[in-house]
């Protein structure tokens, strides 16, 4: 029996853990820049991008509807470098995430080459789960003596 891991298909859908039937649009296998998505509880998430070599001025974050887009456009270096080995990349990128309804960007900070974007789910009070009281017939005396007339 084979086990299939579908998590790569849904890792850019934040807040949609229970909605696995949706299909993510094709991003042509974007692997740059590397990133993590953390979930601290049902309402708090963090996206962390590793952006070695970038400065804050070379980065932009846009939120349009449910689409969060992070872009990086590095300033070209005057001197061309010849690498013996290149394991670090410093190139232009655009990375998009689809956020669930009621998700908001709380804050973003950039320190030590890591861009952290904190997200929070703000569910309106009218949509939050609530407890419904269960009554008995003792609380409704009019229903206690109610019988069906089968004649």
Automatic annotation (TrEMBL):
Assigned keywords, A-Z: Chaperone, Stress response
Occurrences of domain SHSP (ranges): 26-137
UniProt signal peptide: none
Domain of life from the UniProt record: Bacteria
Keyword Aminoacyl-tRNA synthetase: no
Pfam families: HSP20 (PF00011)
Record-linked CDD domains: ACD_IbpA-B_like
Similarity section: Belongs to the small heat shock protein (HSP20) family.
NCBIfam families noted in UniProt: PRK11597.1 (NF008618)
UniProt-recorded name of the protein: Small heat shock protein IbpB
Source organism (scientific name): Candidatus Gullanella endobia
Gene name of the encoded protein: ibpB
């Amino acid at each position: 029996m084979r086990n299939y891991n579908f998590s790569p298909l849904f890792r850019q859908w934040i807040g949609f853990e229970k909605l696995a039937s949706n299909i993510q649009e094709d991003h042509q296998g974007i692997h740059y820049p590397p990133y993590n998505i953390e979930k601290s509880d049902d309402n708090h998430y963090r996206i962390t991008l590793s952006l070695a070599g970038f400065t804050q001025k070379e980065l932009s974050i846009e939120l349009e509807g449910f689409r969060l887009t992070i872009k990086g456009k590095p300033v070209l270096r005057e001197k061309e470098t010849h690498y013996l080995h290149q394991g670090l990349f410093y190139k232009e990128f655009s990375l998009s995430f689809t956020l669930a309804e009621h998700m908001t960007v709380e804050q973003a900070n950039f320190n030590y080459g890591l861009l952290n974007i904190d997200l929070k789910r703000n569910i309106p009070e009218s949509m939050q789960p609530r407890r419904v009281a269960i009554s008995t017939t003792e609380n409704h005396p009019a229903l206690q003596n109610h019988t069906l007339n089968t004649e």
